[in-house]
Design a protein that fits this description.
By secondary structure, this protein is α/β, with parallel strands linked by helices. It has three domains: 123 residues, no CATH class; 218 residues, P-loop containing nucleotide triphosphate hydrolases (Rossmann fold, 3-Layer(aba) Sandwich), CATH 3.40.50; 113 residues, no CATH class. Helices cover 37% and strands 14% of the residues. The chain is built from 18 helices and 21 strands. GO terms for molecular function: ATP binding; helicase activity; hydrolase activity.
């Protein structure tokens, strides 16, 4: 296929016809005629592959790196295991055999293909023919098309049109798009679990922008609160309405650190084409990988591989929501400002009393799927007008979360005092490491000396070069906070060498303040 004929992989609101493959300009009947003419020019597996393509054109499609798909009237559904494609190949061979009477060459061709390996060979060849194959990037390529149960919705103009195989869409919502649809049950539920209408509106805008198949907001909301507060019912109801576009991922996805980049990555592979992905609730705290968080909330291409498949590369189409009782750990070493610019803590503070809980509520809300989808579309409309616009409650909870996860901030608050001449980076860093050990913070999560100094600078304690070293003026370790078994490092004047230290028995453990007090030119205030 020429460069001019290739379909764009992404567009911001382009007309649907711009995504149509050039083959759409040729009727299916004409394409089948061409394939049948080509079939007569070949023998055995190649001939059978052309016959197969002529028979199943527009019904089966091979997607490179993923496998066979079949058109089910609404979307190109994945043919997992390839069972439909194999059955179709055998049906084609059966039809060819019916035409082989008196044609020895055709009979020979059919016999050559009528084995398990022969069928695989036919499918392999057919999957490379014009009209029967597509790149993974060609599927679900228009981020502003949402395939609904009752048609394909253009999210720009909210125009609903019939399903079309040329759109190359592999997902479909469970809900139908019904303009104006409302559910009193859904609205009452949201008012109960989120009495702050600003937070409710924020959640609607977030789920609304999640309908778009591209990353418009580089954020990672975390719905948090103790149990029995409705957050689980809320996200399961949304995912039910979204159907194929929604999914639940294992929270371990955020902890992945792979040593082999070519290893299978089914968790990442499953993100392809999703619009809303929820990281399910956990019973215990997990430690987020900042690098993975940036990767999954950014807009950079994702390279992933399913088991026994070739790797594919795709642009992220999903928005993330973590739902958890316990906020995940983000140690200072990994949680830089770029991470906290993405994290949003959404508080679910209401606890539903046992006598007010309805065990059938999730089932009832499934019947409101159409209204929930329409609610999300309305949220998208509000997003176009004002953006996400985080409410005060979300901003405050996020700030509390960030401060609680900032190891250096906690160290300063618990182990230091302000005023006075200030301690050197060395003294402060040694105290910080001892405090981390006492707090159970692993060494891999502790900041090195340079990063620690930078973190203090962000807290308005920059370092200044003095004779005794780099000093953070106005920040001192509490005298009772630290004991060390080695003397603090003291910078010597230029050209002066350290004096030889005679061998002696180990000194008893002393306070670092005793050592500093004995240093010349230092006065404790």
């Amino acid at each position: 296929m020429s460069e001019q004929e290739s379909r764009p992989t992404q567009a911001g609101g382009a007309a649907p016809e711009e995504f149509a493959d050039s083959r759409a300009q040729i009727s299916i009947a004409e394409q089948r005629t061409i394939l049948l003419d080509d079939a007569r020019k070949h023998r055995k597996h190649v001939r059978a592959a052309h016959e197969f393509a002529a028979q199943w054109l527009g019904k089966l499609l091979y997607v490179v790196g993923i496998g066979w798909h079949h058109w089910d009237g609404k979307r190109w559904a994945e043919d997992k295991g390839g069972t439909r494609a194999k059955a179709a190949a055998m049906e084609t061979l059966k039809a060819m055999w019916g035409l082989a009477l008196g044609d020895k060459d055709l009979a020979s061709d059919v016999m050559a293909c009528s084995t398990a390996s022969g069928v695989r060979g036919v499918l392999e060849l057919a999957g490379s023919l014009e009209g029967m194959c597509a790149a993974a990037a060609d599927m679900d390529a228009d981020p502003y098309l949402l395939n609904c149960a009752n048609g394909t919705l253009d999210l720009h103009g909210l125009e609903l049109r019939p399903h079309d195989p040329d759109d190359r869409i592999t997902k479909v919502t469970r809900a139908a798009y019904v303009p104006g649809a409302r559910s009193e049950l859904w609205e009452d539920f949201l008012e109960q679990v989120l009495p702050d209408d600003h937070v409710r509106s924020y959640l609607a805008r977030f789920f609304g922008v999640g309908l778009v198949g591209k990353v418009l907001e580089h954020v990672f909301p975390i719905a948090t609160g103790t149990g029995r507060n409705g957050k689980g019912v809320a996200y399961t109801s949304v995912l039910h309405a979204l159907g194929d576009y929604g999914g639940v991922a294992d929270p371990a996805l955020m902890e992945v650190v792979k040593s082999n980049p070519n290893a299978p990555s089914p968790a990442f592979f499953d993100l392809r084409g999703r619009r809303m992905v929820v990281l399910s609730e956990t019973d215990t705290k997990i430690r987020l990988s900042a690098s993975v968080l940036k990767r999954l909330t950014g807009g950079d291409p994702i390279k992933a591989r399913a088991l026994r498949k070739d790797p594919i590369e795709f642009l992220p189409s999903h928005s993330f929501l973590m739902v958890t009782n316990h906020l995940p750990e983000l140690p200072s070493k990994v949680a830089d400002p770029a991470v906290w610019s993405r994290v949003r803590a959404v508080p679910f503070n209401v606890v539903i009393p046992p006598d007010e809980q309805d065990p059938r509520l999730p089932e009832k809300l499934e019947l409101a799927a159409d209204a929930i989808l329409t609610w999300m579309v309305a949220g998208l409309g509000e997003y176009w007008e004002r953006g996400l616009d985080e409410p005060e409650a979300v901003q405050e909870r996020t700030s509390e979360y960030a401060e609680g996860q900032d190891d250096v901030r906690r160290f300063v608050a618990e182990q230091c005092e302000t005023g006075g001449i200030g301690d050197t980076t060395t003294v402060l860093h040694e105290a910080y490491k001892d405090w981390c050990t006492a707090e159970g913070i692993y060494r891999r999560d502790q900041l090195g000396r340079s990063a620690f100094a930078d973190a203090l600078a962000r807290l308005d304690y920059p370092s200044v070069k003095e004779r005794r070293g780099m000093v953070h003026q106005g920040l001192n370790v509490l005298r009772e906070a630290l004991t060390v078994s080695k003397e603090p490092m003291v910078e010597l004047p230029p050209g002066q060498r350290p004096a030889a230290v005679p061998q002696q028995s180990p000194k008893p453990q002393t306070s670092v303040w005793d050592e500093v007090a004995d240093a010349p030119g230092i006065m404790l205030l």
